[in-house]
Design goal:
The complex is a heterodimer of chains A (402) and B (339). Chain A is α+β, with helices and mostly antiparallel strands and 402 residues long. Helices cover 65% and strands 6% of the residues of chain A. Chain A is built from 12 helices and 8 strands. With 339 residues, chain B is α/β, with parallel strands linked by helices. In chain B, the strands form 5 sheets. Chain B has a 5-stranded mixed sheet. In chain B, strands 4-1-5 form a 3-stranded parallel sheet. Classes of the chains: A alpha+beta (402), B alpha/beta (339).
């Protein structure tokens, strides 16, 4: 009679031989994790307990009651309405947060543009362009950011004229060391139509893009996507604006005795901060881009050349899509760095979250533990949201392996 | 970033340090052999280290007097330079034993910040510095002006209050430290720079062309500046309070650094004897030695002497005594008696 052999006889044993629980690797690993968790929870608990006890013993106010108290101080840049007499500490917090997000958003967009241009330029065959890009990267990323910010702030202030000798353009546009001033539209009723037209335009452009892509995949015919999108996104709202009877008036900046009031105002502090953050982070992004492009095998470029693609399309259709897989994770780091570095704003007088909240609010309320905790939570949230978005994008463009 | 890290570190210290606010500050200081004093670090006349690291200033001398009273040695002080923003956290967390950093005594600082102010070593008020070229003669003409201000001080609030009360428009540009604020003012970013009047005189000297700037006559606030300690240690509170009083009393009595040895030997005035410790045991009641008053005057001097040396006629600031003269000479400096 034929039998399965020894394999059969082993399977008659029920599991591994019985050992003491202490030596069971599974039990052990769970036990270690439980103990570690318990220690962490205990440490966290005793830290909080300790802080509360110490604050109570020193008769230092605690809790979040300050949130609705009147702030009473002025802020130079407010994206939402705020007055010293009516504004609360809570309102000041939101203003600081918005100012931080503004700087981070502008900085991220500009740094990405600078980074990609310089990164690609550094690989250029043009000797001058490549050397200049290399020089820029090496110089910028090896000097501390704070020094650069102070340099840009003073450079911006020194380069611009005094209020009385403002550079001006017709149409009430002024530039001086108090900032950049221009007319600003004030919208009245009827603007909803323009906004609706804009939304329709964006949706239309997206739909056209998807349709055009499908068409190209099926028939190989290309469509003027850029032109149509521009027409839909910009043209449609403009038509709507005139159709609604131009529901906007321009507010013109006016020269006062000391300052210019009204209209659009861009502070030199914001400009200096954006320049500093953009150039600094741009240098790092340039290196990330260069690494990404160099990670794409040379055979790919050669293959594209063999198929008759010119340099531009090769870069756009073959190299960059593959390079993006290498670029995205370190690019996320740079975005996070830029956001966190924006907290240096206080040194150039820009009212960001750290300046307003962990600066003035902390000092006026004296509630360091609460204020610092909130601020840390905010930066953590911003950073996690940024990396979530980037991870989602990364997973979309990641190599799909079969 | 450095400031943020300091703040975080101080907050962390407040969280983890088990018993920073215990009632044993004097013992802690004695066993450490060194007084930790929170000082300004960048304000001439009040707290400023020179190139060799020697600290000078009115507040600095106060800490030296305190160290003299405890150790009989004015050099046993470690000065910790603090920004306006970090100073309270540093005191609350036990990083410094006493805060002598031109700090305004206000009700909220006295209560919810957990501090005790021990006295007023300089009566100040907030003022404005402007360019002469602006042809402004009064702060009331400053409507619509851009004002550079330092963060983390009472000045931010006073400034808003003053403009609001006088129905004037205001643009503030707020900086982390006085250094950056005065630099921005100097480069034309602001029409005016505001801080305590004493600070205005000190900062004016650092401007590129100090003669092109004037201090406006208006004083828009009361700024009683004084040292402070943590809540919860009455003995330490008493010591810091009485070191200040002892310096005022000795000025009242005409006891100076130069004649204190003479006075110790030959005086017949019972007030002087009690101050210098040859009569009674007032120093021991504070937890110090009998001759605590003698030590202060011998090593540092009386209030009038440190005033003239640091901010008065003996200094570049040349500030008049004004409100800071003794009560007998039309000022506000007054001390309860030692007895």
């Amino acid at each position: 009679m034929w039998r399965w052999g020894s394999g059969m006889s082993i399977s008659q044993h029920s599991g591994p031989p019985k050992v003491s629980l202490i030596y069971d690797p599974k039990v052990r690993s769970i036990a270690y994790q439980v103990i570690l968790c318990a220690i962490i929870i205990f440490l966290a608990y005793s830290a909080v307990r300790n802080a509360i006890d110490n604050l109570a013993r020193a008769h230092i106010a605690s809790g979040f009651g300050f949130w609705n108290q009147t702030a009473g101080f002025d802020i130079s840049q407010t994206l939402i309405s705020y007055t010293a007499q009516g504004g609360t500490y809570g309102r000041a917090f939101w203003i600081g947060l918005l100012n931080t997000l503004l700087v981070a958003a502008i900085g991220i967009v500009l740094a990405t543009i600078v980074g990609f241009l310089v990164g690609i330029a550094r690989l250029s065959k043009n000797f001058l362009l490549a050397r200049l890009s290399a020089g820029y990267v090496e110089m910028i990323r090896n000097v501390p950011l704070l020094l650069q910010l102070l340099f840009w702030y003073n450079a911006v202030l020194k380069a611009l004229p005094d209020l009385r000798d403002s550079w001006s353009l017709p149409g009430s546009i002024y530039l001086n060391n108090r900032g950049f001033f221009a007319p600003y539209p004030i919208f009245s009723s009827g603007t909803e139509l323009v906004v609706a037209a804009f939304v329709v335009g964006v949706i239309g452009a997206l739909a056209f893009g998807i349709w055009a892509r499908k068409r190209q995949e099926q028939t190989g015919q290309q469509s003027p996507v850029a032109l149509v999108s521009l027409g839909l996104i910009v043209g449609l709202p403009i038509i709507a604006f005139f159709a609604a009877g131009m529901p906007a008036t321009l507010e013109f900046p006016e020269k006062g005795r000391f300052n210019i009031r009204g209209g659009l105002e861009i502070l030199p502090e914001l400009v200096a901060l954006v320049i500093g953050l953009t150039l600094y982070t741009g240098a790092f992004i340039a290196e990330v881009v260069r690494a990404g492009i160099m990670a794409v095998s040379k055979g790919q470029t050669e293959a594209a050349g063999a198929l008759g693609l010119r340099t531009g399309p090769t870069l756009k259709l073959v190299v960059i899509p593959q390079a993006m897989r290498v670029i995205i994770p370190p690019l996320t780091n740079q975005y996070l760095n830029l956001t966190k570095n924006s907290s240096l704003a206080v040194f150039v007088g820009y009212p960001d979250l750290v300046q307003i909240f962990t600066g003035t609010v902390l000092n006026q309320t004296g509630q360091a533990v609460e204020v610092v905790t909130i601020t840390m939570a905010v930066y953590l949230t911003i950073s996690l949201l940024t990396s979530m978005t980037m991870n989602w994008y990364n997973s979309r463009i990641a190599l799909v392996e079969r | 970033m450095k400031r943020v890290i300091t703040t975080l570190a101080l907050a962390a210290a407040a969280v983890f340090a088990a018993s920073v606010a215990s009632a044993q500050t004097l013992n802690t200081v004695k066993s450490r052999g060194m007084l930790n004093c929170g000082a300004n670090g960048s304000l001439g006349g009040f707290g400023l280290p020179d190139a060799q690291g020697n600290w000078t200033g009115l507040d600095v001398d106060f800490c030296r007097a305190l160290a003299s009273a405890i150790f009989g040695d004015p050099t046993k002080v470690k000065f910790v330079a603090l920004t306006a923003k970090d100073r309270f956290t540093a005191l609350q967390s036990g990083d410094v034993d006493v805060l002598a950093r031109n700090t305004t005594w206000t009700s909220s600082r006295d209560t919810s910040l957990g501090l005790n102010f021990t006295g007023v070593n300089y009566y100040d008020g907030q003022g404005f510095l402007v360019r002469k070229a602006l042809k402004v003669n009064s702060a009331l003409e400053l409507s619509d002006a851009a004002v550079c201000v330092q963060q983390g001080t009472t000045t931010e609030l006073n400034l808003s209050d003053y403009f609001r009360a006088n129905k004037m428009k205001l643009k503030t540009v707020t900086f982390a430290t006085a250094d950056e604020a005065i630099k921005a003012y100097d480069s034309g970013r602001c029409d005016a720079f505001t801080t305590d009047a004493s600070g205005l005189y000190a900062e004016r000297l650092r401007l590129a062309k100090s003669d092109d700037h004037i201090v406006l006559p208006e004083i828009i606030s009361k700024e009683p500046l004084g040292p402070s300690v943590r809540h919860g240690d009455d003995q330490w509170f008493d010591i810091v309070k009485w070191v200040h009083f002892a310096m005022i009393i000795s000025e009242e009595l005409g006891v100076t650094q130069a004649n204190v040895d003479e006075a110790l030997k030959s005086t017949t005035n019972p007030d002087v004897k009690r101050l210098l410790g040859t009569e009674g045991n007032y120093g021991e009641q504070l937890g110090l030695t009998k001759d605590w008053g003698y030590r202060i005057i011998k090593h540092v001097g009386n209030y009038g002497e440190i005033f003239e040396k640091n901010v008065g006629q003996g200094s570049p600031l040349k500030i008049q005594r004004g409100l800071n003269a003794l009560w007998t000479k039309g000022g506000l400096q007054y001390a309860p008696p030692i007895r």
